[in-house]
Design goal:
The complex is a heterodimer of chains A (500) and B (334).
Chain A: E1 9-18, E2 21-31, E3 36-40, H1 47-54, E4 62-67, E5 70-72, H2 77-82, E6 85-88, H3 100-104, E7 111-112, E8 115-116, H4 118-131, H5 148-160, E9 166-170, H6 178-193, E10 197-201, H7 205-211, E11 214-219, E12 222-228, H8 234-242, E13 262-270, E14 277-282, E15 286-290, H9 297-304, E16 312-317, E17 320-321, H10 327-332, E18 335-338, H11 342-346, H12 353-357, H13 359-364, H14 376-382, H15 399-411, E19 417-421, H16 429-444, E20 448-452, H17 456-462, E21 465-470, E22 473-479, H18 484-491
Parallel strand pairs in A: 3-10, 3-11, 6-9, 9-10, 15-20, 15-21, 18-19, 19-20
Antiparallel strand pairs in A: 1-2, 1-4, 4-5, 7-8, 11-12, 13-14, 13-16, 16-17, 21-22
Helix pairs in contact in A: 5-6, 8-18, 15-16
Chain B: H1 12-28, H2 35-60, H3 68-83, H4 90-114, H5 119-138, H6 148-155, E1 157-160, E2 164-167, H7 168-185, H8 187-197, H9 199-204, H10 209-235, H11 245-255, H12 267-286, H13 294-318
Helix pairs in contact in B: 1-12, 2-7, 2-10, 2-11, 2-12, 3-4, 3-5, 3-10, 4-5, 4-10, 6-10, 8-10, 11-12, 11-13
Classes of the chains: A alpha/beta (500), B mainly alpha (334).
Chain lengths: 500, 334
């Protein structure tokens, strides 16, 4: 480990709120040349926000940034870039039909006699590729001909071409196949040897222990600890990441004798994103589905719902094998999916509360079932939507009320299996409690509920049992009231296959 | 739930514009002192209003139909050539023209939804194909003649008890308008608008977005064929009868406050937009403004109407007014 005395970048007491919701409270972080500094935390702990503060995307509300020991202030990403800080984002920003060199110098092309100096662009790109020891990529290759891992190299070369000495990487392995991860490790190590300071944001335990020199843990936007990697065990890390009280109120769980027949069953089901799934959800039961982002939780729900159907194995609804290849089939079988992105694919925002409430019934059903069986007002009462009237457009409702409208549109078709993905994301405490009570109430009436949530207290508080996913497969099952540490241990792949 | 009249968002301005134009006509034109003057206006406007209703179905579900003008020309030219004055051919040829409209709409819709070509391009291509085919078939000068029976729909009138003579075209228009308004209140109609607003939400609710869009194009094609039958009778046979009508229909729909890109607007307002446009041209004509300015006026309207729609939203956002954020009233005791 070759560390300079003065850190390349030091962030002190950084505070940031969005719309009055604090996301970071007084977070400290320093990055030294030639080190890989990992930042860990649960979803929503503030990792990405911290990275964006470093990148100049967000301005901190308070706190200081120092670069090479001197105070700095970034009005925007360009300022951060000028200070030698570059970020590799999760989504790639390359233009597929242009060459590697053109992408690296996009918008900053070297000019000679009023013409783009292609020769120099290619030569400089080649120099950087050589410096990194990447001889498999030619500067004149089209980006579309490169693998995902190679594109990541191009992103990094692009960052280095701005003379970056601090590199932030946001979940760099998320898009990579297993064998490509090793290549990335190599690359990161080479960058470190060449004196670059690397901020490595990840929630994969193994990577962090394989690669990093120091680890900073954030929880709920607060700094928890920063320690050399060698002084931490995975168990310590999990404890630091979760250690939080479970004080909220949740409705009473069901008694095991209340569970009815198996409504949804998967037998060795899988597709490109998930594999070997075996699970059962019974009538009356709320089963929690835990896992980190990208672990396949949402992919499982989308597969059951026919958005990205299972390609292997079997799926049974109320005991009968079913092939569900599109949402319409799922809806007609009595499966409902409350997606995690209610504005993206849950609601038609310019339509009224009534039109959204009736959307599923009208869109998916035919004949008498498509007509009103309950009327809209009683549905809205059931979910306690507060709106000016049925004709109000849903975009003017608060997030909590929008979510209740999403639930109402599904209740309108009386589902047997209800999949909910992040049902309380971004809604206030009162609405959260209402959603929790509604889910429990539906379970009592014989619906099988599969609930995905990144909020562990919620997941643990609500679930009759918890399934944990890791890397596209089920990592284990935990009973009601399991600890957050148990869940995180399975979710991060630190502990595999715990017994129920 | 008690029913009370309610205007869809963006509908009010066109009604104000229409009222002002009608008042303007009453002041300027002596013919507009009596109902017959307005009836004549409505008769003239009927084909455009019907086209606007068809265009509405496509626009509100998130597309464009540029082929309707060429479809009108093709319909008239085909009818004239096939009937060629033969009265007995009237009914089969009318059915054929309607079928042709449905076929063109079907093609537009299938290419848009299955081959994923933007509807703007598909229908532009269809416009060119239809224009070219019509020209090829007629050598530029339409042959044949329409039968008297065919022309009745465009120029004839029905003696309605108590009301007197009502033009066929007005009766047809009213029937279509009522049917369209009822359709837009139905589940399928609401789903059509929702598909224009958020395709993903409709799909994830189990809806068939492609079929809804296809339906929009088919209705647009069918109504263009109806407009062709009325225009053939009203204006006669020429190779220019439908030219430019697609833009006029789009202008009318936009003037009616229907959001380009889909998701909002009422079909009655779209028809009111078409009537306003016709009233405006009549008024300009009465004021002695050259007819050559019509397309310029139309261009200004389409820009102004879209600017109004987006400026409205933008301004509201900038002023942070959010006029309808109001989450304090409980709808009913639970």
């Amino acid at each position: 480990m070759t560390s300079d005395a003065t850190p390349r970048v030091r962030l002190s007491a950084i505070t940031k709120s969005f719309l009055g919701v604090p996301v970071l409270h007084g977070v400290d972080l320093d990055l030294r040349g030639g080190e890989v500094h990992a930042v860990m935390g649960e979803n929503g702990a503030g990792k990405s926000t911290l990275l964006k503060v470093l990148a100049g995307v967000h301005r901190p509300d308070s706190g200081t940034i120092e670069v090479d020991g001197e105070a700095a202030s970034f009005a925007g990403p360009t300022d951060a870039q000028r200070a030698g800080i570059a970020i590799i984002h999760q989504e790639f920003t390359l233009l597929p039909h242009r060459s590697v060199a053109e992408n690296v110098y996009l918008g900053r092309e070297p000019v000679r006699r009023m013409q783009v100096d292609r020769r120099r662009m290619v030569a400089d790109t080649r120099k950087l590729l050589d410096w990194l020891g990447e001889d498999g990529i030619d500067p004149t290759d089209a980006v579309s001909s490169l693998s995902v891992a190679q594109r990541q190299v191009v992103e990094i070369v692009k960052a280095l071409s701005t003379d970056a000495r601090v590199l932030g990487m946001d979940e760099p392995t998320a898009a990579l196949a297993d064998h490509e991860v090793e290549l990335l490790y190599d690359l990161v190590r080479r960058l470190r040897e060449r004196g670059i300071a690397i901020l490595y944001v990840s929630h994969r335990m193994r990577e962090v222990f394989d690669l990093s020199d120091r680890i900073t843990v954030l929880k709920d936007g607060r700094f928890v600890t920063c320690a050399p990697t060698g002084e931490l065990t995975p168990d310590d890390l999990v404890r630091h990441m979760v250690g939080r009280e479970l004080g909220d109120y949740y409705p009473d769980r069901a008694a095991p004798e209340d569970f009815g027949r198996v409504r949804l069953a998967l037998r060795d089901a899988g597709n490109a994103r998930v594999r070997d799934l075996n699970l059962e959800v019974r009538a009356g039961e709320i089963v929690g589905l835990a896992g980190l982002q990208g672990s396949g939780r949402s992919a499982l729900a989308r597969a059951v719902f026919g958005v990205e159907p299972f390609t292997t194995g079997r799926m049974e609804v109320d005991g009968a094998a079913q092939r569900v290849t599109r949402p319409r089939t799922a809806v007609r079988l009595g499966i409902a999916l409350v997606t995690e992105d209610r504005k993206g694919d849950g609601l038609a925002l310019r339509q009224s509360v009534r039109d959204n409430t009736l959307l599923v019934r009208r869109a998916a059903l035919r004949g008498p079932r498509s007509r009103a069986r309950h009327d809209v007002p009683s549905l809205l009462d059931l979910v306690t939507v507060v709106a000016r009237g049925e004709h109000q457009e849903v975009r003017f409702l608060s997030g909590g009320n929008q979510q209740k409208v999403v639930l109402a549109k599904w209740l309108a078709v009386e589902p047997r299996v209800l999949l909910v993905d992040e049902p309380t994301r971004g809604i206030d405490v009162g609405a959260k409690r209402a959603v929790h009570e509604l889910l429990r109430d539906l379970a009592k009436r014989g619906v099988a509920v599969l609930m995905i949530s990144s909020e562990l207290p919620e997941l643990i508080g609500m679930s009759d049992r918890i399934l944990v996913m890791h890397a596209g497969a089920l990592a284990g099952e935990l009973p009601a009231g399991a600890s957050e540490g148990d869940v995180m241990a399975l979710a991060t792949g630190h502990r595999a296959g715990a017994a129920a | 739930m008690t029913w009370r009249p309610r205007l869809a968002e963006g509908t009010a301005p066109v009604l104000v514009v229409l009222l002002l134009l009608l008042v303007g006509l009453a002041i300027v034109g002596p013919a507009y002192d009596e109902p017959s003057g307005y009836l004549a206006l409505l008769k003239r406007a009927a084909p455009l209003m019907i086209l606007a209703i068809g265009q509405y179905f496509v626009i509100v579900s998130g597309g464009f139909d540029l082929s309707v003008g060429a479809l009108v020309t093709a319909g008239v030219v085909i009818a004239a050539r096939l009937i060629d004055g033969d009265e007995s051919a009237t009914t089969p040829v009318i059915l054929l023209v309607l079928g042709f409209g449905v076929l063109v709409g079907l093609l537009n819709g299938l290419i848009t939804t299955k081959l994923l070509v933007p509807s703007f391009i598909v229908t532009l291509g269809m416009l060119l194909v239809l224009d070219g085919a019509t020209f090829l078939w007629t050598d530029g000068a339409p042959r044949g003649a329409l039968s008297a029976g065919f022309r009745t729909f465009g120029r004839g009138a029905l003696d309605v008890p108590l009301l007197g003579e009502i033009p066929w075209s007005v009766l047809i228009l009213l029937a279509i308008l009522v049917a369209a308004a009822l359709f837009m209140r139905s589940g399928t109609g609401r789903a059509l608008v929702a598909a224009g607003d958020n395709e993903a939400a409709v799909r994830m609710s189990g809806g068939q977005v492609d079929r809804l869009r296809l339906l929009g194009f088919v209705l647009s094609g069918l109504l263009a064929a109806v407009a062709a039958i009325l225009l053939g009778g009203f204006a006669g046979v020429s190779a220019q009868v439908g030219s430019g009508l697609e833009f006029r229909a789009i202008t009318a729909v936009v003037l009616g406050g229907v959001l380009l890109g889909g998701g909002r607007g009422s079909v009655v307002a779209a028809a009111a937009g078409a009537l306003s446009l016709e009233a405006l041209f009549t008024l300009l004509n009465l004021l002695g403004v050259s007819g050559a300015l019509e397309s310029a006026v139309q261009g200004l309207i389409i820009i102004a109407a879209v600017a109004y729609a987006s400026l409205g939203g933008g301004l509201r956002q900038r002023l942070r007014l959010r006029p309808k954020q109001c989450n304090t009233v409980q709808p009913a005791p639970s």
